[in-house]
Amino acid sequence: MEFEKYMETKFPNLSLRPALFYSWDIGIRFELGTEWKREYCNGNSPYHKGVYHRAVTLFKASHLEDEEIFIVANVNDYGDKKTFEHKIKVFYSYVKDKNVLYKLKHKVIPYIFPEDDEEGKYKTHRFILKCKTSDIKYVSLLKAICNQDLGIKPSIIHDVFFINIKRETIFHVYDDRGCDLLSNSTETIRDIYNKYTQWILDYDRVEIDSVFK
Q1: Is-contact 46 191, C-beta < 8 A?
Q2: Is residue 28, in this structure, part of any structural domain at all?
Q3: Could you tell me if residue 18 is inside a domain?
Q4: N or C end of the chain: smaller count of CB under 10 Å?
Q5: Global pTM?
Q6: For 20-53, how does the pLDDT look when each residue is reduced to its tens digit (9 = 90+)?
């Protein structure tokens, strides 16, 4: 499969699962959500607007409209989920031209968190779509990913990774708290590091600065 060959060449031995930042030498972990308050219960609050703004801004900085990307979704199967429905939710609602979905690939892989599956009962369905950035409604998709723990609909509970084929980067919003941007080269994402340095998660800032400085 084209995707597998790409990953073996560009990101050898990297498992597409959280937390990506701690599994690769070159990367940035950004903070998306700041100053949460309990009364913020809808998507129009300052908190939610800030989360969406940062996620979309960082995505646009990492992907041009005409660039080819892989979108990879891990759908974990615990024996009580309808995989087809989840595939439709992740891809169908967020692709502009439904003909693009003919390129959608599916494979079953061992459960992505084997340390949590001692009895070996679980598995992961991996869906892979090769397309252009312009083929997807990425603003809506990113918002849905950010919403997964906020009690707001629409939401996507699965891990979704955006892999920029030419730039050799991986972008992953893990929830409303933050996102990871990985690269094969510091120079590829140095401008993003410089421009959005104030958004870097302070917990990992020393480690990130050491990579770029």
Answers
A1: no
A2: yes
A3: no
A4: C
A5: 0.92
A6: 999 999 999 999 987 755 555 555 778 888 999 9
